């Protein structure tokens, strides 16, 4: 279901796949290919950040009542630690803080050998969804 949710978005265009959801984590992967490399032939840092934000945002959405609330990114940072020139990178996000109005998630992205490529931290704001009108009949 999570993969279908990303259809027609940057997630799908970059080949991001959600692999596993656990009690306190979400894991996904992304190919390192012509869609995600920078001109120097290695994984683009922005693509790593997109993977991290995708995972943290989706995980955050699982932690709220989606009928009443949504989560939106407030801040994200990333440290790019190791270049990757091909294959797949896999990210796992875990909560650092789940509050009533904010969440903080840490995402670790590794290469196919399990070596740390990028570490990211993201803050999400928890916002109320607008109330839906209960009637379409104009009031007098």
Describe it.
- This protein is an alpha+beta fold and about 140 residues long.
- The protein has a single domain, classed as Roll (Thiol Ester Dehydrase, Chain A).
- It has three helices and six strands, in the order H-H-E-E-H-E-E-E-E.
- Strands 1-2-4-5-6-3 form a six-stranded antiparallel beta sheet, with helices on one face.
- A hairpin with a 5-residue loop joins strand 5 and strand 6 (about 115-130).
- The N and C termini lie far apart (about 45 Å).
- The model has no long low-confidence stretch (mean pLDDT about 90).
- Keywords: Hydrolase.
Describe the protein's topology.
Elements: H1 2-5, H2 10-13, E1 17-21, E2 26-31, H3 45-61, E3 69-80, E4 88-98, E5 102-110, E6 116-128
Antiparallel strand pairs: 1-2, 2-4, 3-6, 4-5, 5-6
């Amino acid at each position: 279901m999570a993969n279908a949710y990303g259809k027609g978005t940057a997630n799908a265009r970059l080949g991001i796949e959600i692999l596993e959801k656990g009690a306190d984590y979400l894991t996904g992967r992304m190919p390192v290919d012509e869609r995600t490399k920078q001109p120097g032939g290695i994984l683009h840092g922005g693509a790593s950040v997109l993977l991290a934000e995708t995972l943290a945002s989706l995980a955050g959405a699982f932690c709220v009542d989606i009928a009443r609330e949504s989560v939106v990114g407030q801040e994200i940072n990333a440290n790019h630690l190791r270049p990757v020139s091909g294959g797949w990178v896999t990210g796992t996000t875990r909560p650092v803080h789940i509050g009533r109005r904010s969440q903080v998630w840490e995402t670790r992205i590794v290469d196919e050998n399990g070596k740390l490529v990028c570490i990211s931290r993201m803050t999400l704001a928890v916002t109320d969804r607008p109330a839906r009108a209960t009637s379409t009949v104009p009031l007098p």
